[in-house]
Fold this sequence. Notes:
CATH topology of the largest domain: Rossmann fold
Oligomer: single chain
CATH superfamily of the largest domain: HAD superfamily/HAD-like
Radius of gyration: 20 Å
CATH architecture of the largest domain: 3-Layer(aba) Sandwich
Number of helices: 9
Structural class: alpha/beta
CATH class of the largest domain: Alpha Beta
Strand order of the largest sheet: 4-3-2-12-13-14-1-15
Number of domains: 2
Shape: globular
Number of strands: 15
Mean pLDDT: 90
Amino acid sequence: xxxxxxxxxxxxxxxxxxxxxxxxxxxxxxxxxxxxxxxxxxxxxxxxxxxxxxxxxxxxxxxxxxxxxxxxxxxxxxxxxxxxxxxxxxxxxxxxxxxxxxxxxxxxxxxxxxxxxxxxxxxxxxxxxxxxxxxxxxxxxxxxxxxxxxxxxxxxxxxxxxxxxxxxxxxxxxxxxxxxxxxxxxxxxxxxxxxxxxxxxxxxxxxxxxxxxxxxxxxxxxxxxxxxxxxxxxxxxxxxxxxxxxxxxxxxxxxxxxxxxxxxxxxxxxxxxxxxxxxxxxxxxxxxxxxxxxxxxxxxxxxxxxxxxxxxxxx
Length: 315
């Protein structure tokens, strides 16, 4: 006979001020939380300033296939200066570092010639490396998938290249595991979709980015150098599959932002009970992983009385 069901609490927050005193470090997703690819969401600048004033360590963690410098430039252009956070860590940056050393794990001796699938033909992920970009899989040692030209290109447009790469048994690196991305008010196909299709064709793929532990361990190492540990850290993101699952896998508390990739699930939910039911839909889809906190948007807000919604895990 099984024991009693475990009670899990999700605290519904008005803003980040509700939880700021509990943590020394904030790992914050970029797309869907800070901006939509076109503009910064309302309240973001103030929230980041409030965290800075309280000397919180802020890491912007992104599955972007571009390097950290390119993302810093983009955030600056959107109106988020680098003075409001401590680091940007991207899948593209971690991939670049791995290719630079070619000394650990999947990256070890991976090769010097690659095919790159990216957005707009961007090749910054191999800039300054001893790696040559080639056009044909038959001439390559490995494949990098860092972006897509969706919606202009569809999955079917990429299939011939993916099949050819699989035929030559190319190792592949997905430098952005997102299956979907946000562009303005619509979702577009992400590199993770191409990677999954490559796997369907028999290709071997390594994912660098959320929810996979490698990139979270990269963050944890940086925080530990600043005497901050996982128990003092919260991950804030808009996707269950990447942000919430990834944080949970390394024992970091998580906060789900309703606006973003799952916005349609919560759309029209006004009462707490309605929001709770919508949250349950997501939880059942993602291995019963439940965020510790739920917030409408990444805003500072005002501290509210404790409002915990206790739910039982369905076994």
